[in-house]
Design a protein that fits this description.
The protein is built from nine helices and 18 strands. With 383 residues, it is α+β, with helices and mostly antiparallel strands. A six-stranded mixed β-sheet has the order 1-2-6-3-7-17. Strands 11-13-9-14 form a four-stranded antiparallel β-sheet, covered by helices on one side. It has a three-stranded antiparallel β-sheet with strand order 4-5-18, with no helix packed on it. A hairpin with a 7-residue loop joins strand 1 and strand 2 (62-68). 42% of the residues are buried.
């Protein structure tokens, strides 16, 4: 079979050159369809069957599921095709042009994480895919950097025969089997505005929020006392009171106040339970105050990840990398693969410290080890 896919450097260059920014600001948000179409073309050339699944009405955002081989214990090599926005004036090179310098490849998405798809193709085109005994699935998602809508849209019917999933986020080629979850909530209080010279004329939402914040800090202390995992650098769940605004003038009693919080739960802590507890504490704090409230999820939460240490994929990743599986604070799409019954490990080239930074790069020294790692995993789980 004649293989038409480009060489590795050109694979990377083409992926980096295709803008696919995901942002909560509609003015900056872009689709990923050009990246998806390009990957689908390359994988079809390698003998994969491809399924492009649109996620929005105009099809500008989509997932790609590319499959070859049959069986019931297959391996998924997964990642996201979107990037975060960039600060043009802080880059020393064109973010959309792959630039080699100082033993590094610079470009938006080199570490997080378009390069991983190029490395997958580089690895598997050297293998005899006709000898697969289990399915090999390449999965590329949309909007990981914002809503994770691509991973959320997956269901078991999309991945027949899959049993294991490797998510190639930048971990410095050290396996991750646990990470914290994430939930971001807005708490909105409504009181009654009035002239500040007479407090009886109003009911301050800002003062009520002071009581709410006191209760939240008490709850945080209770959560951290009740939940701990020494495998994490920060071994307790965290709660950040990140943003507050309210009122409009010093001489008016504050009628509206909003607080936005971020909670990072440990594995074993349920997002729905946390939201229910938040509601109960707000009810308790505000009962009798004549202050009304509402809560709003700023983003659909991401569950915490925990893949058992005895998982065959965890053990294989540890053996092939020579590194013990870690626990990290950042969130990924991996829990959504757990939800589908797959053992999931996060493992890829590049550093999380480079993600979302100007002059993002992938060290050249990580390319060959990544290619070999992918090949070894495919051989172990699919051949």
């Amino acid at each position: 079979m004649t293989i038409k896919t480009p060489k590795l450097e050109e694979l990377m260059q083409q992926l980096i050159a295709l803008p696919s920014i995901s942002c909560t600001n509609p003015a900056l948000d872009q689709g990923n369809r050009n990246v998806i179409n390009t990957l689908a073309s390359w994988l079809e050339d390698l003998g994969f069957s491809t399924d492009i699944q649109p996620l929005n009405a105009d099809g500008s955002k989509a997932n790609l599921i590319a499959t070859t081989g049959k069986g019931s214990n297959g391996l998924v090599l997964a990642g996201h095709t979107d990037t975060v926005p960039y600060d043009d004036n802080r880059w020393n090179s064109d973010p959309f042009r792959l630039t080699e310098a100082n033993g590094r490849l610079y470009g938006l998405g080199t570490a997080d994480m378009k390069s991983f798809f190029a490395l997958i193709i580089e690895a598997i085109r050297e293998l005899d895919l006709s000898s697969l005994q289990q399915p090999l699935i390449i999965l590329a998602t949309a909007d990981e950097e914002t809503s994770m809508s691509g991973a959320r849209a997956l269901n078991a019917g999309h991945l027949p025969g899959a049993r294991f999933a490797l998510i190639g986020e930048p971990t410095g080629l050290k396996p991750v089997r646990m990470h914290k979850g994430m939930m971001m909530e807005a708490i909105k209080l409504t009181g009654l505005s009035g002239h500040s010279s007479n407090p009886a004329l109003g009911n301050s939402a800002l003062e009520a929020m002071h009581s709410v914040m006191t209760e939240l800090l008490k709850w945080r202390e209770e959560l951290q006392h009740a939940n701990s995992n020494p495998l994490f650098e920060i071994p307790v769940p965290t709660m950040n009171l990140g943003h507050i605004h309210g009122g409009d003038n010093p001489n008016r009693i504050c009628g509206h106040c909003e607080l936005q919080i971020d909670i990072r739960p440990l594995p074993g802590m349920n997002l729905a339970d946390l939201r229910n507890e938040l509601e109960l504490r707000l009810q308790k704090t505000l009962t009798g105050t004549r202050i009304s409230y509402e809560t709003l999820a700023l983003l659909d939460g991401v569950p915490a990840l925990e893949t058992p240490a005895e998982s065959a994929l965890v053990k294989a990743a540890e053996k092939l990398t020579g590194a013990a599986a870690e626990a990290v604070a950042f969130s990924t799409e991996a829990p959504f693969y757990n939800r589908l019954g797959l053992d999931a490990v996060v493992l890829g080239p590049g550093s999380i410290n480079q993600a979302h930074q100007p002059d993002e790069y992938l060290a050249l020294e990580q390319i060959k080890p990544t290619v070999k790692l992918i090949q070894d995993l495919v051989k172990q789980f699919c051949m």
